[in-house]
Amino acid sequence: MAAAAVLTPLYLQIAEDIIERIRTGTLRPGEKAPSIRRLSEQKRVSVSTALQAYMWLESRGHLEARPRSGFFVRQAFASLIPEPRFETSGMQPHSLGTHDIIDTIRTSLRDPSCIPFAAGCASPELFPNRAINLILRRIVNRQPQHSAMYQFPPGIDALRRQIARRSPDSGCGVAAEGVVVTCGAIEAVSLSLRAVARPGDVIAVESPTYFGILGSAASLGMKIVEIPTHPQDGMDLERLESAIRKHRIKACITMSNCHNPLGYVLSDEYKKALADLTARHNVAVIEDDVYGDLAYESPRPRTVKSFDKKGLVMLCSSFSKTLPPGLRVGWVMPGRFQAEMERLVFLSTVATSTLSQMAVAEFLASGAYDRHVKRLNAAFASRVDIVRQAIARYFPEGTRVTRPAGGLLLWVELPRKTDALKLYQAALAERIAILPGRIFSTSNRFRNHIRLNCGQTWSEAHERALVRLGRLCEDARA
Amino acid sequence: MAAAAVLTPLYLQIAEDIIERIRTGTLRPGEKAPSIRRLSEQKRVSVSTALQAYMWLESRGHLEARPRSGFFVRQAFASLIPEPRFETSGMQPHSLGTHDIIDTIRTSLRDPSCIPFAAGCASPELFPNRAINLILRRIVNRQPQHSAMYQFPPGIDALRRQIARRSPDSGCGVAAEGVVVTCGAIEAVSLSLRAVARPGDVIAVESPTYFGILGSAASLGMKIVEIPTHPQDGMDLERLESAIRKHRIKACITMSNCHNPLGYVLSDEYKKALADLTARHNVAVIEDDVYGDLAYESPRPRTVKSFDKKGLVMLCSSFSKTLPPGLRVGWVMPGRFQAEMERLVFLSTVATSTLSQMAVAEFLASGAYDRHVKRLNAAFASRVDIVRQAIARYFPEGTRVTRPAGGLLLWVELPRKTDALKLYQAALAERIAILPGRIFSTSNRFRNHIRLNCGQTWSEAHERALVRLGRLCEDARA
To answer: Which CATH superfamily is domain B80-86+370-475 in?
Structure first.
């Protein structure tokens, strides 16, 4: 975290730490926060920096100043904002052109001059860059011919062993032979779709769901049925079953841990019910668990795959949310579709970078991964909280926002009349990148929603951007 | 080449050098080779090593010993072996399961205990590993956060500029904006197919052609028409035109430089005729130029793309044949399909490794690439020659073999009654990996053909393997 100190003002780091104490219950509403003097000693900062931290926390509604008594924890604004509504509608299969979805956002994702609330990723300094670089240097010195051979699917053994070794943490007991390395989770999901369905087939997805899933299915000529999805409780399983009956669904794509964009983590009962239901109908499940390691609670939540008895669940993930995403190391545990997935990787990319595979394998083997993820999750939890606070303060009345159980994303329901696409465009014109809700569905159901990435290190500029975004909401009436 | 010295016996290195002199015409048939003493001085080796080299060259038919006169260059055996026959047959669209094709060979590609005549790749020590590693260390030191951000399509600018800067060498004047980086050439080809055709559409390919192309088209549910392809003169353009007329072909996949497996380089006239013909019918061309830099002749041959006036040619390539293939850096110049290709990369893999992209960009910028490729081509040319010689000596009468104008592959037509799949299996049982001809076609047209990779450093083990392979041909009668 040394690098973070350079970028985040000291008072904000201290404030983040206090928020974390409040979040975890170490400091409770009504309790007195440490005195300014005590805080400055604890943190080895000047009294004025400690005061600055408290004043910022007061301005954000975390603390209240009581004359001559000091600062007290108050009921945060953010906990008063309601969560988004569950609205259902028809479940007709759609076939969607990919153009709209992707072109809408590609510009904003690529523009480095924007305040980055768009792409779902952490600030660069949150990654263990130093440790990864040490490993890279070691590989280069020890094995100068590291990349000189093709590494054919299923990927290098050392990495697959490490991934398999971690699989009991999510309730699976998959061996290295059951792992196929991919170029990111998106390759895993996209090839899983090709392994189990053909153009014209119908796929069930959550609604809202990650736009890459919608784009991928659409670009393969598959039809999409969106199953109404409760912002805390997940996809409606009864409706999923009726869709399976009605539309001969070939596969269901689901994110039960740290859903993108909803942020929920579903219960083991739900996961078992989903595994049983799909098994009963012989429907393949493509489980996108790319945010799974980012659940705030410990131990890490289980996967639907852990309840899979028939090999029908293809568990897809990557290290792009916890380690530098430019490494491009993803994987799939394809169950009974193992051979087909190996073939498809062979025909699509052959492999992802050997050096990346080796580096991730060594980082996992070093044992540093769990410690790193713990720190990362604390950072994400407090950043998500900061952004929720800002939304509570600066966004128009009637705004609703998710309370994620993990990850770095917030899903914001704006007042009904707000046109989020207009907001997206107005924000982009002011170099603020967000994602409009409509790309998370084939319908126009989420036209007044936006998704915000909270993985970035907080700064004045981020705060100003959210103030501005709140004002722009007013102008973005449909 | 320092590392090669460790692996190749000294006398073989010297022999390779003599073959290279013969190949380039420095030593001509009938001329006297340097005396043993002179050679030992030139090469700073013992007289007995020099003698060993000459005896080996004599045993392979390169030199003949004349009593008391020394060694003379003779007409090589290999130039006496005819090239494979051009056989045409019907052009019916096939739709092929990918299973057979890929599963047949995946085992042999992955097994490190085999003598590797299968995968099309060079010996590890032929790559500029030291220079690449220097660059990797530099990037890691200079930009510790090198991989910490997503790099969205079309790929990093520095690499695309370098690729664009080289494009005039193949007759194209494409700007960096016209380049999309991919995870190897196979991703470029596979996504190009998806950009221009849909499941059920018909694609024209050369026959034989690279099995990855057939597998890729098949896995996308496309139908394949094989255009009869002359072993030196390429695809029959009249037949291509009649197939276009008859089958409403959506795209034609072609390799006009260092064809895999045939090894030819086609003339500029041919390339222009192909570009004109496809343009006339508005058929997209997917040009796989992955071996293009490996043409033995200088300057580097042009591409079909260089004659493209309508933006219909998608030029696909990679650095996997000239730089370490585990880097996974490929690219496409998609012409009018630029936006669609960027979308498809975004939905398929997002990107290939950032570090790899940066490393290749710096290696290209250093100016070392051209020198390296020149050395590599000399090595490939002499290795291909050595394998041709061995085939001439050890394979049954009636064997025919290509005389490649570039690359590291030989296409061998065995006597008609040989079943190359049996041969493949018998060879694999003895830890010799080759590729059976049938995977290069959807038909059974090449059942008595094999493809041999000659990119490996020559050793006694390779020689013994080819002796054995020649004998196994006798047993592999259909």
So the answer is: Aspartate Aminotransferase, domain 1 (3.90.1150.10)
